Amino acid sequence: MSRSSKRRPSVSEQDRIVVVIGSTGSGKSTFVAKASRQGFSSVGHGMMSHIADIQSIRVTHPASNCPVVLVDTPAFDDTYKSDMEILRKIAEWLKKLYKKNIHLAALIYLHKISDNRMAGTSLKNLKLFANLCGQNAMPNVVIATTMWSEVKEEIGKRREEQLKRDFWQDMMADGCRIERFENTYESAWRIIGNMSQTCVNVLIQKEMESGDQTVNGTSAGKHAKSRPQVPKSFMARLRGLFSR
Question: Looking at residue 71, which CATH number applies to its domain?
């Protein structure tokens, strides 16, 4: 059984760091809750993002007993913050790890299989994530589909095959794994894996360290800046109108 510790543990070189990234509503907090059998006190649900900051929780790997730190990140399509603000928050956290010589064991990107198409926002989030990771980190990357209970098996399978063929092919060719999250403890740890792979630094860490690069100048930063941004306050008001 996985044993969890306090909600904001400091990390060390002995820890295996697993970063969970995804859009609002993709199931990040649920994934962490299932893997830890505890999760955070505030699990975000609904249309609005409830995770305003990076949260982490230490657990013990159920097979190897090694210490694993699960990290829940704010969504790029956060209700109130721009993609650049979110990216800057994640990048600064990653930079601190890099300076402490702490590497990442895995990065898990969650995608809702219940979405009937790859919307523009989802595609841009995926490209932003790929630019954050870089090609060399792909063997440590997992794309995990979620919300399988919301679709029929044959429909979900057809969407999964299309995503592999049309959108994930390049990442898969570089070593990225594709898995299904079935909303269980066992499924979460199958996705996390056995931690046998070598830990890595992602591209944005190397770019920021090289010549003291700012987030804006990184590959992910340039991609985030190229995206048209709708003011988050406007989107919050619009969603408020439709929720009445």
Answer: 3.40.50.300
